[in-house]
Amino acid sequence: MKSKLILTAFLSVSLMACAQETPKVKHKSKTAVSKQNVKTVKFANAVDPICHMPTEPDMKDTAVYKNKTYGFCSAYCKDEFKKNPEKYVKN
Ligand SMILES: [Zn+2]
Fold this sequence. Notes:
Elements: H1 2-20, H2 23-39, E1 61-65, E2 68-72, H3 75-83, H4 85-88
Antiparallel strand pairs: 1-2
The structure holds zinc ion.
């Protein structure tokens, strides 16, 4: 929620900057946004789907499934998820 607001604000600033400057600036700022997204990894799951424990942003056991990053409390939960991700991810 919070980061979405920050991102919206950032994009607004970028758009204003683009209106005043050349289109080249837009490309440059787009790259910067991508780098920020990599640093602030947010998990697609609010809770560990295996043990139902709430996920923490600093969890080290993660798995990427369908372009989404999932966090797990332990390697055990991560392995269980990887065995059958479709069982745990419902869209
Ligand atoms: Zn777990």
